[in-house]
Design goal:
Molybdenum Cofactor Biosythetic Enzyme, Chain A, Molybdopterin biosynthesis moeA protein, domain 3, 4 domains, six-stranded mixed sheet, molybdenum cofactor biosynthesis, MoeA-like
Length: about 400
């Protein structure tokens, strides 16, 4: 059995970026990282653009201008404006080459077909020049840039509809157990509804990993070996829940051993989630999480999250850990470090009742985990505690 710190370091050192390339529609590229530099095919803006509603002026020495027309955003004509003339113009519209400046409408007084301005303005005032954001052929975004909503909007404004990004991992979630049935079926005596697969799938979707398949295995050794072998061959990451302990019908560990998966570690000194397994075969990572839901989700956030980030070239990113003031008393039993389900708000954190590894109800209202190290046996109100913020 190893420590939490040792387990985290092993995951960090043994998970690497996938580095494969895939092409995605721009609207489906959120959360990906650019595989290569992106260069602009156009000037942006592609024309002189009005920065606000007002009047485009051909400057002269006076303060009065003859109004000769109007240009809206999207109009594709360019009127010729003589000295001392102006056109009404709106934000985003193309400014004619014969206009020197745009004056905002609040500084103009209309008198019939003429306007009076308060004072002379400088040339190019309130005009966005061609290529102000980026010029044709220039670097628009660097390789490895994460595609946020703003980045997607920016690239879309350059006319880009598809983009080259790093491949995200293909992921299999495997649940084990004869007692597990799907929610659409009637619950029989001795059975429980399977929930871990939906829970982990939701956690992955929330992190923008969508290439996820779900597989169910009965407590059968040969079926376990066959199914895991197929998934390890075809997936980048296999997440198994249940069957990793040492009971008579826990076949996952035996199956992984037969398949010659390299074991990086098995069992971590922590609560919940002691029977955690992490291994690798060729380029596929395998995490076998405990079957109890709260333990499985805790291990996902502490360990699998790091592996996912590394696979996406986000090196060794963990969930944020902050110091918060405890609003609760808590006494730890045993010597194992513990992750406690909690609610964080405005610098304070409340440790919840119901910390059993099987308790999903408590986890359902949590937005944080309070970490209690092995050196600490109790938490008192107003104590500072290490708090892990969950990505909800």
């Amino acid at each position: 059995m190893i420590s939490i710190e040792e387990a985290i370091q092993i995951v960090k050192k043994t998970t690497k970026p996938l580095l494969g390339e895939t092409i995605k529609p721009i609207e489906k590229s959120g959360g990906y990282k650019l595989f290569k530099n992106v260069y602009s095919d156009i000037d942006m803006p592609p024309f002189r653009q009005a920065a606000m509603d007002g009047y485009a002026l051909h400057l002269h020495d006076g303060l009065t201008y003859n109004l000769i027309g109007e240009i809206k955003a999207g109009d594709n004509f360019q009127p010729y404006i003589k000295k001392g003339e102006a056109v009404r113009i709106f934000t985003g519209a193309a400014v004619p080459d014969t206009a020197h400046a745009v004056i905002m409408q609040e500084k103009v007084k209309n008198i019939g077909n003429q306007i009076n301005i308060e004072h002379n303005i400088l040339e190019n005032h309130n005009i966005r020049p061609v290529g102000e954001q980026v010029k044709k052929g220039d670097l628009a975004l660097k390789k490895d840039t994460k595609l946020t909503p703003a980045a997607i909007g920016y690239l879309s404004s350059l006319g880009i509809s598809e983009i080259s990004v790093y491949k995200k991992p293909s992921i299999a979630i495997v649940t084990t157990g004869n007692e597990l049935i799907e929610a659409k079926n009637k619950l029989g005596y001795g059975q429980i509804y399977e929930s871990n697969s939906k829970m982990l799938q939701s956690a992955l979707y929330n992190l923008k990993f969508y290439d996820v398949t779900i597989h169910k295995i009965k407590d059968n050794y040969n079926q376990t070996v066959t199914k895991l072998n197929d998934l390890i061959i075809n997936k980048d990451l296999v997440i198994i829940t249940g069957g990793i302990s040492v009971g008579d019908y826990d076949f996952v560990g035996k199956a992984l051993n037969q398949l010659e998966v390299y074991e990086h570690f098995y069992k971590v000194k922590q609560k919940p989630g002691k029977p955690l397994y992490y291994g690798k075969k060729e380029n596929t990572l395998i995490f076998a999480l405990p079957g109890n839901p709260a333990a499985a989700l805790t291990c996902f956030y502490i360990y699998v999250y790091i592996a996912l980030q590394n696979m996406m070239n986000n090196y060794n990113i963990e969930l944020p850990r902050i110091q918060a003031i405890s609003l609760s008393n808590f006494e730890k039993k045993g010597d194992r470090p513990q992750f406690l389900k909690a609610i964080y708000k405005n610098g304070s954190v409340t440790i919840l009742e119901g910390q059993s590894s099987a308790m999903q109800q408590t986890f359902a209202i949590s937005n944080a985990l309070v970490f209690v190290p092995d050196s600490k046996s109790r938490i008192k109100k107003n104590d500072p505690v290490e708090t892990i913020i969950l990505p909800l």
